[in-house]
Amino acid sequence: MIDNNEIEKRLASALNAATPDILDELMAELDLSEKPEQPMREKLADDGQERYKKSFVRSRSFRTLISCAAAFILMIGGFTVWKNASEKVLAVVDLDVNPSIELSINNKEKVVKAIAVNEDGKDILDGMDLKGSDAKTACNAIVGSMLTKGYLNDRSNSILLSVSSGDSKKGQEIEAELSDCINSYTSGSEVSAAVMGQYVDADDELKAFASNNGISTGKAGLIRRLLESGGTKMTEDSLLSLSTQELIVLGQERNVSGETMYGEAYTGDYIGYESALAAALSHAGLDREQVSGAEVEMDCENGAIIYDVEFRSGGQEFEYEIAASTGEIIQSKKDIDDDMDDDSDDDDNADDEQDDD
Amino acid sequence: MATLQLDENLIIRMASNDGAAFRELYQQTSGVVYGFAMSILRNKHDAEDVMHDAFIKIYSSAVTYRPSGNPMAWILTIVRNLCLNKIRAGKVCEDLSEYDDLAGALNDSDAVLDRMVLETAMSVLDAEERQIVVLHAMTGFRHREIAEILDLPTGTVLSKYNRALKKMKKEMETKGVER
Asked: Which residue among B31, B65, B108 sits closest to A16, beta carbon to beta carbon?
């Protein structure tokens, strides 16, 4: 009688024999050669041999870290394409997590220039040569490196992708394409990322605002969107001190999104709407049943995310500002609930009940 | 049974566009990748499609691979997901005659029994049994590891494995296979 071992051995042997050989086809499709170093050396000859050595040594010594950054330096083999590619910039693509990177791309959607907008951006671009690579490949390489280096993680999980272009139709197409591409890429990672994609009308004023404050045009564009959304305490200065993650959370919670939104920005660091209302009610010494017209909204004041809480009770109107991360009551205010009254515009008058605890 | 040990460094090297690493990984794993896809889809064309897509995916995802000590499980999860996507998209036509062609390709006289075992596995086992037996046969993984890949309780894998082999033996007995 045939035994288990033999059944398995024969099954494996039959399946191995039936396996088609598609290696050559795959190698051709992936444009893989056995020795990637040679063309790489030529490619980087202009930049000097030192740089090549640096990235190569790095890839050997930090075996687990090589994943994205060094990987894509070698992966981007479009040297010939680069030589023929037009230098003319069709669109500017900003990628913000905390690292901010700006890619200028030409009409073939190849990277003409990649610059780091901040220090973390330099860390990401260190050793990466993205010139001549496809915009999608470059975005994935950057996001991959952000994942590997921990800038993109479960708590700071949001990516802002912003595209600006003289050709707004083309720019919007590129934004949709790249947002989708980044979303597909991050879907395969362990981090559950959110991707906010926006088309930015980068006028001179916005560019100046970005450059004066050392932020990307994309981040500046999101700040402008938030400010224009109205009904808020936000100011330019206050928003400037927020991280990209905080800005995206704020946009998400206030329905001020870009053109595209994939996934959900992590809000677990904040106490949440219910708790914010509960904190305010507790301070006012009221139960939920005793109040009407309760509203809670996420906002930003003095560079921090807060909840604005409002409700009415016993002919009075209550307004609270609650620190979103701690639940601390930053400000409380009580007015006569009368739309027609003449002292409702007070900010800090004697009627206000200030509380710093 | 020898366990298929795949060197994790191949994936890490592959992330650096190392063609030699890709070739080596392909040579070590193509049989399992194809066999596992066959065990789920039971159709050689679909299995070949998945095999192709799986290697492209393995290559493109190498940059996000986090060393876990079990790179083969990572690869097999990719294969399984691609198969399930194909099934979900309704693109699979499970067809035993397809599989007959596959067995027909094994016409070496020494392979007659191999062919019969494969035929038997494909015809008498259900989908989960096929996957369990094929993974056990081709990777030498423990039932616990197979359970993780297939997202099944270990006990289920063990009992299905035993039942599957009994079914196969019985079927082969009726076909008059003696050893």
From this structure: B31
Whole-angstrom distance, CA of residue A310 vs CA of residue A185:
41
Any chain A CB within 8 A of the CB of B78?
A: no
Cβ distance A10 to B114 less than 8 Å, yes or no, reads yes
Q: Point out the residue among A8, A19, A71 whose CB comes nearest to the CB of B136.
A: A8
B122 alpha-carbon distance from chain centroid: 12
Give the type of residue at A254: R
For A201-253, write each residue's pLDDT tens digit: 988 899 999 988 999 999 999 999 999 887 678 898 999 999 999 999 999 88
**Owner of token pair 């290697």:** B55
| Distance in Å from the first CA to the final CA of chain A | 82
Q: Is B17 on the interface with A (CB under 8 A)?
A: yes
Which residue bears the tokens 């951006």? A121
Identify all chain A residues contacting B19, using CB atoms and an 8 Å cutoff: 27, 32-36
* Three-class secondary structure of residue A250 per DSSP: helix
For residue A94, the distance in angstroms to the closest alpha carbon of chain B comes to 22
* The residue type at B116: M
Q: What's the CA gap between A333 and A329, in Å, rounded?
A: 11
Q: Do A35 and B1 touch (CB under 8 A)?
A: no
Mean pLDDT of chain B, nearest integer = 85
ipTM of the complex: 0.91
Instruction: With residue A329 as reference, give the H or E element that holds it.
Output: strand A329-336
Amino acid in the structure at residue A271: I
How far is A50 from A335, CA to CA, in rounded Å? 69
For B35, the closest of A15, A144, A188 (CB atoms) is A15
Tell me which CATH code domain B8-175 carries: 1.10.1740.10
Residues of A in contact with B121 (CB under 8 A): 11
pLDDT for residue B109 = 53
Any B CB within 8 A of A57 CB: no
**CB-CB contact of A322 with A328 (8 Å):** yes
Max CA distance (Å), chain A: 100
Lowest-confidence segment of A37-46, A108-117, A187-196 by average pLDDT? A37-46
Is the pLDDT at A34 greater than 80? The verdict is no
CA B25 vs CA B14, B20, B75, B140: distances in Å: 9, 9, 10, 17
Taking the mean position of all CA atoms in its chain, how far away is CA A132?
24
- Residues A80 and A68 sit within 8 Å (Cβ to Cβ): no
Secondary element (H or E) of residue A158: strand A158-165
Asked if A75 and B118 come within 8 Å (Cβ–Cβ), the reply is no
